[in-house]
Structures are given as C-alpha cells and as structure tokens.
Design a protein that fits this description.
alpha/beta; single chain
Length: about 280
C-alpha cells in the first residue's frame, strides 16, 4: 500500500498484531522494506511490524536530492506513524536504518517505547574503519578507489552502483553463499541518486555521540564480531553512551546477524520485545 505523507508517496506493508514496531531499512539507495521483512519476519507474533521504503528507495517516490537527509527521512517516518495512527511505537533498524532510528528518537522520543539496533554506529567515523576492514579481506576487484567511490557517493549511475555493490557483497556475512548474489541483484532496485546524496552530503556530517544521553528508552544494541562495515567497537561505544542500553555481541557473525546466528538473534529480540 502507499501513504501520501510529508510531500512524498511511501510504500509500506504491515504484518503481525499487537504493539507496533516501525522499522527503518538501511542502505540508502539500495535498501527497502524487504530487508526488514527478512530481519523481523520471525517476530510478527510479538507485535505489529510496519515495513516501508524511505523516499528515494524501493517503490517510494523520488524527490530532489537535497531532500535525502536525516531530517526528511525522520519527518517521513513520523508522518507515516501519524497517518497509520500507531500511537507509541518501538523503532527497529539495521545498519543505516539504525542510524535513522537513533535520529528519529532524538527528534520524537515522546512517541518511542524502545529501540532495536543491528550493526550501526553513532558517527561517520565507521567509514574509515570499514574501508580498511574491506581492504584487509583481499577480495577480488575490491580496492581503495572502488571503496572510496562507494563511500563518498560517487556512483555514475544505477548500473555503476549495482556493479560496486556486487563486488563488496561477499563481505557482509560469515556464511556467504555465492548463489545468493544473482538472486539478490535480480530483486534489488538501485537508486544511485539517493545513495550519492546521502553519502556525499549527509553522512559526513553525522555525529550524535554528544546527544545520546538524551535517549532514555531501552535500547537493544546488536553487533557481529566480524562485521566489516560497522565493527563491534562502534556498538560498544553506543552502549557506553546510551543510558539504558543492552549490548549483545554475536561472536560468529558479520553484518547479517539474522543469517549468521539466526537462533541467537531470535532469542535476543524475543526477550527484548517481551520486556515490560
């Protein structure tokens, strides 16, 4: 379904019943609601999950690049919450979706019951660590110029973006299956304009470390010990700065915790959602 909110048309799906959980996907320009359906699909008996595509992503409408900012993304999320009459919500986000979940909480904490984070960070500094971690893997076709073009928002077009992503995809999981890449590329919709706008102009300004003490609600922080793009040290930093945090490090996981350690992932989230 589509909701026309905050000057844009957002595609969304709702599954489950009970207390609402508004999910925010990662990967601006490549992420969409399906990513969170894979991550949270096993928990729909514990709450009502709202999956949606951010502006400039997936099936949602495209807009001028200058509107692909944390401010607009958070306004869209809040407008969708109001449109669906959700009341108080839990916020769930992985990777860049975790960044936006924290940004949303800083703006609209009065509407938030709890926050679930996977593989995320409080500042842009993860970028340098991610590049060095990727280079250390010695993956064919992955060199510093490729990584810098990707992280600094220098994609020529959607096909160029697709090619860059295909080269780094094996880095994301400790249980990487090459057969998944072809399937994933066939489903993914690549929006290079969205990616470039976020990583060229928005992400370099991102640093909320001095404000994390303002977030008082319970926060579950999950990270993979072998996560190349958001190393576990950034999760540990979040846990130190958030006043009501629960840190869970997955020792056998990369970025995709739900794929690398599915049973523990399910247990940790179930316990967190069932807390009063």
């Amino acid at each position: 379904m589509f909701a026309e909110v905050n000057g844009c048309k957002l595609y969304y799906e709702i599954a489950g019943s009970g207390r609402p959980v508004l999910t925010m996907h990662g990967g601006p320009g490549i992420g969409d609601h399906q990513d969170n359906k894979k991550m949270f699909g096993d928990f729909e008996d514990l709450g009502q999950f709202i999956y949606y595509d951010m502006r400039g992503n997936g099936k949602s409408s495209h807009h001028p690049p200058e509107t692909y900012t944390h401010e607009f993304f958070c306004q869209d999320a809040e407008s969708l919450r109001q449109h669906l009459e959700l009341g108080m919500v839990a916020i769930g986000g992985g990777s860049y979706g975790g960044i936006l979940a924290l940004e949303y909480a800083l703006r609209y904490q009065r509407n938030v019951t709890r926050i679930l984070l996977r593989g995320t960070a409080a500042s842009y500094e993860l970028q340098t660590a991610a590049i060095e971690n990727a280079l250390a893997k010695n993956l064919d076709g992955v060199d510093r110029p490729l990584l810098e073009r990707l992280f600094y928002g220098q994609m020529k077009d959607d096909d160029d973006f697709r090619d860059h992503f295909a080269k780094i995809f094996p880095l994301y999981s400790t249980t990487y299956d090459p057969s998944r890449l072809k399937e994933l590329l066939a489903k993914k919709v690549f929006h290079s304009a969205t990616h470039n706008a976020v990583f060229r102009h928005e992400f370099p300004k991102y640093d909320i470390r001095e404000r994390l003490h303002e977030i008082k609600v319970p926060v579950l922080i999950m990270a993979g010990r072998h996560d190349w793009i958001t190393p576990a040290t950034f999760a540990e930093e979040l846990a130190e700065l958030l006043p009501n945090a629960q840190l869970e490090i997955f020792e056998d996981s990369g970025h995709m915790l739900h794929r690398d350690e599915p049973e523990r992932f399910k247990r940790v989230i179930t316990d967190f959602l069932n807390q009063d």
